[in-house]
Amino acid sequence: MGEQILTILTEITGTDEVRNNRDMNLFDEGLLDSLATVQLLVELDGELGIQVPVSEFEREEWATPNKIIAQAENLKD
Protein backbone atom coordinates (compact mmCIF):
# COMPACT_ATOMS: atom_id res chain seq x y z
CA MET A 1 0.00 0.00 0.00
CA GLY A 2 2.87 2.37 0.77
CA GLU A 3 4.14 2.24 -2.79
CA GLN A 4 0.67 3.02 -4.17
CA ILE A 5 0.38 6.02 -1.86
CA LEU A 6 3.81 7.27 -2.90
CA THR A 7 2.74 7.00 -6.54
CA ILE A 8 -0.40 9.04 -5.78
CA LEU A 9 1.69 11.65 -3.93
CA THR A 10 4.18 11.83 -6.80
CA GLU A 11 1.35 12.49 -9.25
CA ILE A 12 -0.29 15.12 -7.04
CA THR A 13 2.90 16.97 -6.06
CA GLY A 14 4.66 16.57 -9.39
CA THR A 15 7.94 15.51 -7.77
CA ASP A 16 9.76 12.31 -6.84
CA GLU A 17 11.08 14.06 -3.73
CA VAL A 18 8.19 12.50 -1.78
CA ARG A 19 9.84 9.11 -2.33
CA ASN A 20 13.32 10.29 -1.33
CA ASN A 21 12.39 12.29 1.77
CA ARG A 22 9.43 10.62 3.42
CA ASP A 23 9.62 12.84 6.50
CA MET A 24 9.38 16.07 4.52
CA ASN A 25 6.46 18.28 5.56
CA LEU A 26 4.50 18.54 2.32
CA PHE A 27 2.50 21.56 3.50
CA ASP A 28 5.56 23.54 4.64
CA GLU A 29 7.31 22.76 1.35
CA GLY A 30 4.30 24.00 -0.62
CA LEU A 31 3.71 20.60 -2.23
CA LEU A 32 0.27 20.11 -0.67
CA ASP A 33 -2.38 22.78 -0.28
CA SER A 34 -6.12 22.56 0.34
CA LEU A 35 -6.92 21.63 -3.27
CA ALA A 36 -4.18 19.00 -3.42
CA THR A 37 -5.37 17.62 -0.08
CA VAL A 38 -8.86 17.08 -1.46
CA GLN A 39 -7.32 15.43 -4.53
CA LEU A 40 -5.30 13.14 -2.23
CA LEU A 41 -8.41 12.11 -0.30
CA VAL A 42 -10.31 11.44 -3.54
CA GLU A 43 -7.42 9.33 -4.88
CA LEU A 44 -7.13 7.35 -1.63
CA ASP A 45 -10.82 6.53 -1.87
CA GLY A 46 -10.81 5.76 -5.59
CA GLU A 47 -7.55 3.81 -5.76
CA LEU A 48 -7.47 2.12 -2.35
CA GLY A 49 -11.03 2.31 -1.02
CA ILE A 50 -9.91 4.41 1.96
CA GLN A 51 -12.45 7.03 2.95
CA VAL A 52 -11.28 10.00 4.99
CA PRO A 53 -14.02 12.50 5.85
CA VAL A 54 -12.67 16.02 5.31
CA SER A 55 -14.12 16.98 8.70
CA GLU A 56 -11.83 14.42 10.37
CA PHE A 57 -8.70 15.40 8.44
CA GLU A 58 -6.04 16.78 10.78
CA ARG A 59 -3.36 18.44 8.68
CA GLU A 60 -0.53 17.70 11.12
CA GLU A 61 -1.40 13.98 11.11
CA TRP A 62 -1.11 13.90 7.31
CA ALA A 63 1.86 16.26 6.81
CA THR A 64 4.56 13.84 5.57
CA PRO A 65 4.58 10.86 3.21
CA ASN A 66 5.29 8.54 6.17
CA LYS A 67 2.37 9.98 8.15
CA ILE A 68 0.05 9.69 5.16
CA ILE A 69 0.99 6.02 4.72
CA ALA A 70 0.50 5.33 8.44
CA GLN A 71 -2.89 7.08 8.55
CA ALA A 72 -4.07 5.24 5.44
CA GLU A 73 -2.97 1.88 6.85
CA ASN A 74 -4.82 2.62 10.11
CA LEU A 75 -8.00 3.49 8.22
CA LYS A 76 -7.73 0.44 5.97
CA ASP A 77 -7.72 -2.00 8.92
From TrEMBL:
<keyword id="KW-0596">Phosphopantetheine</keyword>
<comment type="function">
    <text>Carrier protein involved in the D-alanylation of lipoteichoic acid (LTA). The loading of thioester-linked D-alanine onto DltC is catalyzed by D-alanine--D-alanyl carrier protein ligase DltA. The DltC-carried D-alanyl group is further transferred to cell membrane phosphatidylglycerol (PG) by forming an ester bond, probably catalyzed by DltD. D-alanylation of LTA plays an important role in modulating the properties of the cell wall in Gram-positive bacteria, influencing the net charge of the cell wall.</text>
</comment>
<feature type="domain" description="Carrier">
    <location>
        <begin position="1"/>
        <end position="76"/>
    </location>
</feature>
<protein>
    <recommendedName>
        <fullName>D-alanyl carrier protein</fullName>
    </recommendedName>
</protein>
<keyword id="KW-0436">Ligase</keyword>
<dbReference type="GO" id="GO:0036370">
    <property type="term" value="F:D-alanyl carrier activity"/>
</dbReference>
<dbReference type="InterPro" id="IPR003230">
    <property type="entry name" value="DltC"/>
</dbReference>
<keyword id="KW-0597">Phosphoprotein</keyword>
<keyword id="KW-0963">Cytoplasm</keyword>
<keyword id="KW-0961">Cell wall biogenesis/degradation</keyword>
<dbReference type="InterPro" id="IPR009081">
    <property type="entry name" value="PP-bd_ACP"/>
</dbReference>
<feature type="modified residue" description="O-(pantetheine 4'-phosphoryl)serine">
    <location>
        <position position="34"/>
    </location>
</feature>
<dbReference type="InterPro" id="IPR036736">
    <property type="entry name" value="ACP-like_sf"/>
</dbReference>
<comment type="similarity">
    <text>Belongs to the DltC family.</text>
</comment>
<dbReference type="GO" id="GO:0070395">
    <property type="term" value="P:lipoteichoic acid biosynthetic process"/>
</dbReference>
<comment type="pathway">
    <text>Cell wall biogenesis; lipoteichoic acid biosynthesis.</text>
</comment>
<dbReference type="GO" id="GO:0005737">
    <property type="term" value="C:cytoplasm"/>
</dbReference>
<dbReference type="GO" id="GO:0071555">
    <property type="term" value="P:cell wall organization"/>
</dbReference>
<dbReference type="Pfam" id="PF00550">
    <property type="entry name" value="PP-binding"/>
</dbReference>
<dbReference type="GO" id="GO:0016874">
    <property type="term" value="F:ligase activity"/>
</dbReference>
